[in-house]
Design goal:
The protein is mainly β. It has a single domain, classed as Beta Barrel (YmcC-like fold). The chain is 12% helix and 58% strand. Strands 2-3-4-5-6-8-10-11-12-14-15-16 form a twelve-stranded antiparallel β-barrel. It is globular, with a radius of gyration of 19 Å.
């Protein structure tokens, strides 16, 4: 008998009962399922095992989360790295009472001179809800735009909507965690005055575990192509740098 699988099923059953009970008390508070920003004051690297299908991507992808408490505001700084520890995307999120809001997103593209910085314009800024209605009617998401200096005539829009689907449970390391499953719907729209517009869409899901934050994600891009990751471990930046120096970071 698979003991871990049996424990997961038992936990899911208890979570279902808890969800029914909490539904009687108005909107449900799920803030504990997002990244614990106050506990990340010294920063941690989340190591995600690559579960996607695109060729050429690293086996493990790294994201650094740092909680920053400034006066009366709490922020979460997020930096996504390549396997060579090159920054690819940086964002700043504000943790408010009702949810998480994007305040800044910057994209970075490798270049012969180093990297090209591409600031974005936030059109909608919702990142994660802290309260769930018994029957959520609206998706929670964001929309941003940016221009690559290499093609200044082309403007790109990125939209992502999250919708709560159900409670679940996940295993990370040797522990079982309560978790929330969100479905995803998104679009990447490129507006080119010469070549015309294209707007490929994607779907997927995200799983957020209590006390950890994002532990699994997947984006189906079409034609069998997908991006995905599953949390393998959390380590300090110093430990990651040491591994990379020893050649064991990839």
């Amino acid at each position: 008998m698979n003991v871990a699988r049996t424990r997961v099923r038992a936990l899911i059953a208890s979570l279902f009962l808890m969800t029914l009970l909490s539904a009687c008390n108005g909107p449900r508070d799920v803030r504990d399922y997002y990244f614990p920003a106050r506990d990340l004051s010294e920063g941690l690297v989340y190591c995600y095992e690559n579960t996607g299908t695109l060729p050429g991507r690293a086996a493990v992808e790294y994201t650094y989360y740092l909680g920053v408490d400034v006066d009366t505001a709490l922020y979460l700084s997020v930096t996504q790295y390549s396997d060579l520890l090159e920054p690819q995307q940086q964002s700043r999120q504000e943790i408010k009472n009702d949810g998480v809001y994007l305040r800044e997103v910057t994209l970075l593209r490798p270049d012969t001179s180093g990297s090209v910085t591409m600031p974005t314009t936030l059109l909608y800024d919702k990142a994660f809800p802290f309260y769930l209605e018994e029957e959520p009617e609206e998706a929670y998401g964001y929309r941003l735009s940016f221009t690559d200096p290499a093609t200044p005539e082309v403007k790109t829009y990125v939209s992502l909507n999250r919708r709560y689907e159900r409670d679940t449970a996940v295993v990370v390391g040797d522990r079982i965690y309560r978790a929330l499953l969100f479905s995803l719907e998104g679009e990447v729209s490129m507006r080119d005055p010469e070549a015309g517009d294209i707007s490929p869409q994607f779907t997927g899901y995200e799983i957020y575990a209590e006390g950890l934050g994002l532990v699994e994600h997947r984006r189906e891009l079409g034609s069998g192509a997908a991006l995905g990751g599953r949390l393998k471990e959390r380590i300090t930046m110093a430990e990651l740098l040491e591994r990379l120096e020893e050649g064991g970071g990839r």
